[in-house]
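Researcher: Go.
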Amino acid sequence: MASPLGALSAMLLLLVVALAKNCEATAMHSAIHAVRRHGHKLKPIKINKPKFKPGLWRKAHATFYEGGTGSFGGACNYKDVVQQGYNLNTVALSDVLFKKGKTCGACYEIQCVNSPKWCKKGSLFVTATNQCPSNPSLPSDNGGWCNSPREHFDIAKPVFNKIADYTAGIVPIQYRRVPCQKKGGIRFTIMGNPWFNQVIVWNVGGAGDVVSVQVKGNDNVKWTKLQRDWGATWKTSTHLVGESLTFRVTTSDGRESTSWHVAPKNWQFGQTYEGKNIK
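Model: Structure:
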Protein backbone atom coordinates (compact mmCIF):
# COMPACT_ATOMS: atom_id res chain seq x y z
CA MET A 1 0.00 0.00 0.00
CA ALA A 2 1.42 3.41 -1.06
CA SER A 3 2.47 5.78 1.68
CA PRO A 4 0.38 9.00 2.02
CA LEU A 5 3.65 10.88 2.51
CA GLY A 6 5.07 9.49 -0.75
CA ALA A 7 1.94 10.47 -2.69
CA LEU A 8 2.09 13.98 -1.23
CA SER A 9 5.78 14.32 -2.22
CA ALA A 10 4.98 13.30 -5.83
CA MET A 11 2.17 15.83 -6.02
CA LEU A 12 4.46 18.60 -4.73
CA LEU A 13 7.14 17.66 -7.30
CA LEU A 14 4.61 17.86 -10.16
CA LEU A 15 3.40 21.24 -8.87
CA VAL A 16 6.98 22.62 -8.82
CA VAL A 17 7.62 21.45 -12.42
CA ALA A 18 4.35 22.98 -13.64
CA LEU A 19 5.12 26.31 -11.96
CA ALA A 20 8.61 26.38 -13.52
CA LYS A 21 7.24 25.83 -17.04
CA ASN A 22 4.58 28.49 -16.52
CA CYS A 23 7.21 31.01 -15.38
CA GLU A 24 9.38 30.20 -18.43
CA ALA A 25 6.44 30.70 -20.83
CA THR A 26 5.45 33.97 -19.09
CA ALA A 27 9.00 35.29 -19.37
CA MET A 28 9.15 34.47 -23.11
CA HIS A 29 5.75 36.09 -23.68
CA SER A 30 6.88 39.23 -21.85
CA ALA A 31 10.10 39.39 -23.85
CA ILE A 32 8.23 39.20 -27.16
CA HIS A 33 5.88 41.98 -26.07
CA ALA A 34 8.84 44.09 -24.97
CA VAL A 35 10.43 43.69 -28.42
CA ARG A 36 7.17 44.68 -30.11
CA ARG A 37 6.71 47.72 -27.82
CA HIS A 38 10.07 49.07 -28.87
CA GLY A 39 9.26 48.67 -32.56
CA HIS A 40 11.63 45.81 -33.27
CA LYS A 41 10.81 42.71 -35.26
CA LEU A 42 12.02 39.22 -34.57
CA LYS A 43 14.17 38.34 -37.58
CA PRO A 44 14.52 34.75 -38.82
CA ILE A 45 17.98 33.24 -38.81
CA LYS A 46 19.53 33.71 -42.26
CA ILE A 47 21.64 30.86 -43.59
CA ASN A 48 24.31 32.04 -46.02
CA LYS A 49 24.82 29.67 -48.93
CA PRO A 50 28.41 29.12 -50.07
CA LYS A 51 29.66 30.79 -53.23
CA PHE A 52 29.31 28.92 -56.50
CA LYS A 53 32.39 26.78 -57.16
CA PRO A 54 33.76 25.17 -60.35
CA GLY A 55 32.22 21.81 -61.19
CA LEU A 56 33.76 18.56 -62.39
CA TRP A 57 35.27 18.21 -65.84
CA ARG A 58 33.12 16.49 -68.46
CA LYS A 59 33.77 15.40 -72.04
CA ALA A 60 32.02 16.89 -75.07
CA HIS A 61 32.72 18.30 -78.54
CA ALA A 62 32.81 21.82 -79.92
CA THR A 63 32.15 23.46 -83.27
CA PHE A 64 31.82 27.13 -84.23
CA TYR A 65 29.13 29.23 -85.86
CA GLU A 66 29.01 32.51 -87.72
CA GLY A 67 27.18 35.58 -86.51
CA GLY A 68 27.55 38.98 -84.91
CA THR A 69 27.14 40.76 -81.60
CA GLY A 70 23.40 41.09 -82.16
CA SER A 71 22.82 37.42 -83.04
CA PHE A 72 25.09 35.51 -80.65
CA GLY A 73 22.54 36.11 -77.87
CA GLY A 74 19.61 34.85 -79.94
CA ALA A 75 17.76 32.13 -78.03
CA CYS A 76 18.45 33.79 -74.66
CA ASN A 77 17.21 37.18 -75.93
CA TYR A 78 20.39 39.04 -75.04
CA LYS A 79 20.19 42.02 -77.39
CA ASP A 80 23.91 42.69 -77.97
CA VAL A 81 26.45 40.42 -76.28
CA VAL A 82 29.27 42.98 -76.45
CA GLN A 83 27.25 45.90 -75.10
CA GLN A 84 25.86 43.66 -72.36
CA GLY A 85 29.30 42.64 -71.15
CA TYR A 86 29.48 39.07 -72.48
CA ASN A 87 31.87 40.10 -75.28
CA LEU A 88 32.32 37.45 -77.99
CA ASN A 89 33.11 34.71 -75.46
CA THR A 90 29.71 33.16 -75.99
CA VAL A 91 28.41 29.71 -76.77
CA ALA A 92 25.26 28.04 -78.10
CA LEU A 93 24.42 24.89 -76.14
CA SER A 94 22.93 21.65 -77.41
CA ASP A 95 19.36 20.82 -76.33
CA VAL A 96 20.36 18.68 -73.35
CA LEU A 97 22.51 21.49 -71.91
CA PHE A 98 20.31 24.45 -72.95
CA LYS A 99 17.30 23.03 -71.06
CA LYS A 100 14.77 25.21 -72.88
CA GLY A 101 16.55 28.39 -71.84
CA LYS A 102 17.05 27.57 -68.16
CA THR A 103 20.84 27.60 -68.58
CA CYS A 104 21.03 31.07 -70.15
CA GLY A 105 23.75 33.03 -68.38
CA ALA A 106 25.70 30.01 -67.11
CA CYS A 107 29.48 30.17 -67.49
CA TYR A 108 31.86 27.45 -68.64
CA GLU A 109 35.57 26.78 -68.94
CA ILE A 110 36.45 24.89 -72.12
CA GLN A 111 39.69 23.19 -73.17
CA CYS A 112 40.48 21.41 -76.42
CA VAL A 113 41.84 17.90 -75.69
CA ASN A 114 43.07 14.69 -77.36
CA SER A 115 43.64 16.27 -80.76
CA PRO A 116 47.29 17.46 -81.00
CA LYS A 117 46.89 18.43 -84.66
CA TRP A 118 44.16 20.99 -83.93
CA CYS A 119 44.20 21.83 -80.22
CA LYS A 120 45.80 24.89 -78.68
CA LYS A 121 46.90 25.21 -75.07
CA GLY A 122 44.85 27.11 -72.54
CA SER A 123 41.21 27.61 -71.60
CA LEU A 124 38.34 29.57 -73.05
CA PHE A 125 35.76 31.03 -70.66
CA VAL A 126 32.34 31.43 -72.25
CA THR A 127 28.77 32.32 -71.29
CA ALA A 128 25.72 30.43 -72.55
CA THR A 129 23.77 32.94 -74.65
CA ASN A 130 22.23 30.84 -77.43
CA GLN A 131 20.91 27.43 -78.44
CA CYS A 132 22.52 25.07 -80.89
CA PRO A 133 19.48 23.67 -82.77
CA SER A 134 19.10 19.94 -83.16
CA ASN A 135 18.75 18.34 -86.58
CA PRO A 136 16.97 14.95 -86.36
CA SER A 137 17.56 14.30 -90.06
CA LEU A 138 21.32 14.01 -89.43
CA PRO A 139 23.11 11.41 -87.29
CA SER A 140 24.59 12.78 -84.07
CA ASP A 141 28.10 11.76 -85.14
CA ASN A 142 27.90 13.36 -88.57
CA GLY A 143 26.31 16.78 -88.60
CA GLY A 144 23.66 16.38 -85.91
CA TRP A 145 26.07 17.53 -83.23
CA CYS A 146 23.41 19.20 -81.12
CA ASN A 147 20.92 16.35 -81.12
CA SER A 148 19.91 14.95 -77.72
CA PRO A 149 21.39 13.45 -75.66
CA ARG A 150 24.70 14.77 -76.97
CA GLU A 151 26.47 17.47 -74.92
CA HIS A 152 27.83 19.95 -77.41
CA PHE A 153 29.17 23.53 -77.55
CA ASP A 154 28.79 25.67 -80.65
CA ILE A 155 31.22 28.54 -80.03
CA ALA A 156 31.17 31.99 -81.63
CA LYS A 157 33.71 31.76 -84.48
CA PRO A 158 35.82 34.80 -83.44
CA VAL A 159 36.87 33.05 -80.21
CA PHE A 160 36.85 29.37 -81.25
CA ASN A 161 40.33 29.94 -82.66
CA LYS A 162 41.62 30.55 -79.11
CA ILE A 163 41.41 26.84 -78.26
CA ALA A 164 41.66 25.17 -81.68
CA ASP A 165 42.35 25.78 -85.35
CA TYR A 166 38.93 26.57 -86.82
CA THR A 167 39.77 24.57 -89.97
CA ALA A 168 39.30 21.44 -87.85
CA GLY A 169 35.53 22.01 -87.91
CA ILE A 170 34.87 19.95 -84.78
CA VAL A 171 37.18 19.11 -81.87
CA PRO A 172 36.93 17.06 -78.67
CA ILE A 173 36.86 19.16 -75.51
CA GLN A 174 36.51 18.97 -71.78
CA TYR A 175 34.36 21.49 -69.96
CA ARG A 176 33.14 22.45 -66.51
CA ARG A 177 30.78 25.00 -64.97
CA VAL A 178 32.55 27.94 -63.36
CA PRO A 179 31.42 31.06 -61.45
CA CYS A 180 30.47 34.02 -63.63
CA GLN A 181 32.68 37.04 -63.02
CA LYS A 182 30.69 40.17 -63.86
CA LYS A 183 31.42 43.88 -63.63
CA GLY A 184 28.74 45.95 -61.93
CA GLY A 185 25.33 44.76 -60.81
CA ILE A 186 22.51 42.67 -62.22
CA ARG A 187 20.71 44.53 -65.01
CA PHE A 188 16.94 44.63 -65.43
CA THR A 189 15.67 45.80 -68.83
CA ILE A 190 11.92 46.40 -68.65
CA MET A 191 9.99 45.88 -71.89
CA GLY A 192 6.33 45.51 -72.89
CA ASN A 193 3.39 47.70 -71.89
CA PRO A 194 1.27 48.45 -68.76
CA TRP A 195 -0.75 45.24 -69.28
CA PHE A 196 2.13 42.90 -70.17
CA ASN A 197 5.55 43.43 -68.60
CA GLN A 198 8.74 41.71 -69.76
CA VAL A 199 11.97 41.92 -67.78
CA ILE A 200 15.26 40.81 -69.32
CA VAL A 201 17.60 39.81 -66.48
CA TRP A 202 21.28 39.90 -67.46
CA ASN A 203 24.85 40.35 -66.21
CA VAL A 204 24.19 37.90 -63.37
CA GLY A 205 27.20 36.78 -61.33
CA GLY A 206 27.79 33.59 -59.36
CA ALA A 207 26.04 30.62 -60.94
CA GLY A 208 24.76 32.95 -63.66
CA ASP A 209 21.63 31.02 -64.62
CA VAL A 210 18.42 32.35 -63.06
CA VAL A 211 15.66 30.07 -61.75
CA SER A 212 13.36 32.64 -60.15
CA VAL A 213 12.55 36.36 -60.44
CA GLN A 214 10.19 38.21 -58.11
CA VAL A 215 9.06 41.82 -58.16
CA LYS A 216 7.61 44.06 -55.45
CA GLY A 217 6.27 47.61 -55.65
CA ASN A 218 6.29 50.25 -52.95
CA ASP A 219 2.49 50.40 -52.70
CA ASN A 220 -0.05 47.97 -54.15
CA VAL A 221 2.22 45.32 -55.67
CA LYS A 222 3.19 42.66 -53.13
CA TRP A 223 5.88 40.08 -53.83
CA THR A 224 4.94 38.60 -57.20
CA LYS A 225 6.67 35.76 -59.06
CA LEU A 226 7.42 36.34 -62.72
CA GLN A 227 7.17 33.50 -65.23
CA ARG A 228 9.93 32.71 -67.70
CA ASP A 229 8.87 33.99 -71.08
CA TRP A 230 11.88 32.68 -72.99
CA GLY A 231 15.59 32.57 -72.28
CA ALA A 232 16.59 35.39 -69.95
CA THR A 233 13.22 37.16 -70.35
CA TRP A 234 10.61 36.97 -67.60
CA LYS A 235 6.99 38.17 -67.74
CA THR A 236 4.03 39.25 -65.62
CA SER A 237 0.66 40.87 -66.28
CA THR A 238 0.70 42.58 -62.87
CA HIS A 239 0.25 46.35 -63.17
CA LEU A 240 3.65 47.77 -62.22
CA VAL A 241 3.46 51.29 -63.63
CA GLY A 242 3.74 54.10 -61.06
CA GLU A 243 5.51 52.10 -58.36
CA SER A 244 9.20 51.88 -57.52
CA LEU A 245 10.25 48.30 -58.19
CA THR A 246 12.31 45.88 -56.15
CA PHE A 247 13.56 42.69 -57.81
CA ARG A 248 14.66 39.46 -56.15
CA VAL A 249 16.73 37.08 -58.28
CA THR A 250 17.52 33.45 -57.39
CA THR A 251 20.17 31.46 -59.26
CA SER A 252 20.39 27.70 -59.81
CA ASP A 253 22.56 27.16 -56.72
CA GLY A 254 19.89 28.67 -54.44
CA ARG A 255 21.65 31.99 -53.79
CA GLU A 256 19.62 35.15 -54.17
CA SER A 257 20.03 38.90 -54.48
CA THR A 258 17.43 41.55 -53.67
CA SER A 259 17.73 44.92 -55.41
CA TRP A 260 15.59 47.30 -53.38
CA HIS A 261 13.76 50.07 -55.29
CA VAL A 262 16.13 49.65 -58.23
CA ALA A 263 13.58 51.17 -60.62
CA PRO A 264 12.13 54.53 -59.43
CA LYS A 265 8.42 55.37 -59.54
CA ASN A 266 8.84 57.08 -62.90
CA TRP A 267 10.62 54.15 -64.58
CA GLN A 268 10.07 53.78 -68.32
CA PHE A 269 9.67 50.84 -70.69
CA GLY A 270 12.83 50.20 -72.69
CA GLN A 271 15.10 51.39 -69.89
CA THR A 272 17.68 49.33 -67.98
CA TYR A 273 18.18 49.51 -64.22
CA GLU A 274 21.13 48.16 -62.23
CA GLY A 275 20.80 46.24 -58.97
CA LYS A 276 22.89 44.22 -56.55
CA ASN A 277 24.87 41.34 -58.01
CA ILE A 278 25.68 37.85 -56.76
CA LYS A 279 29.40 37.45 -56.14
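Model: Confidence is low (pLDDT under 50) at residues 12-20, 23-45.
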